[in-house]
UniProtKB/TrEMBL annotation:
UniProt source species: Sporosarcina ureae
Protein name stated in the entry: Thiol peroxidase
Taxonomic path: Bacteria, Bacillati, Bacillota, Bacilli, Bacillales
Domain of life where this protein originates: Bacteria
HAMAP family (UniProt xref): Tpx
Record-linked PROSITE patterns: THIOREDOXIN_2
The reaction(s) this protein catalyses: a hydroperoxide + [thioredoxin]-dithiol = an alcohol + [thioredoxin]-disulfide + H2O
């Protein structure tokens, strides 16, 4: 299993580690209007899934805004989403306040469906650990990064490169 720390303290991740070559596990998260969203809702597209502990914190905010900017150059066949355990209403307010319009922000607060399916749920904090997944049009995982220190930035360039290689 992936070894991750949060502020240099070891944490335990719930669920199974997802690896390159795996079929992406199914999950259900909530949109900001409380409607359920699944991976199949974006079937046929390349999916860039950016996972953050909380969009309302420094690194998470920067990460989400960075992928929002990158989304404009990735094309219509790419679905960019950020998933956190923030409440959908808080995500909606943050998204509006930060003028984030090019990606979808989804909440896993209800039952950690995404976190358990992708092995990102932090047992001690009931948050998701910082990670990036790229899923191709057929649902196969082509890029995975579990950031070893959850408060550090991911490798943005590697994620964008992985998406562009699928276009």
């Amino acid at each position: 299993m992936v070894q991750v720390t949060f502020k240099d303290n070891p944490i335990h991740l719930l669920g199974s580690e997802v690896k390159v070559g795996d079929q992406a596990p199914s999950f259900t998260v909530l949109a900001n209007d409380l409607k359920p969203v699944t991976l199949d809702d974006s079937k046929g597209k390349v999916r860039l899934i950016s996972v953050v502990p909380s969009v309302d914190t420094g690194v998470c905010s920067i990460q989400t805004k960075r992928f929002n900017e990158e989304a404009t150059s990735l094309g219509e066949d790419v679905e960019v989403m950020t998933i956190s355990c923030d409440l959908p209403f808080a995500q909606g307010r943050w998204k509006e306040n930060e003028n984030v319009e090019n990606l979808h922000l989804y909440s896993d607060h209800r039952d950690l469906s995404f976190g358990k399916a992708f092995g990102t749920a932090i047992e001690e904090l009931r948050l998701l650990t910082r990670s990036i997944f790229v899923v191709d049009r057929d649902g196969k995982v082509t890029h995975v990064e579990y950031v070893s220190e959850a408060t550090d930035h991911p490798d943005y360039d590697a994620a964008i490169k992985a998406v562009k290689e699928l276009n």
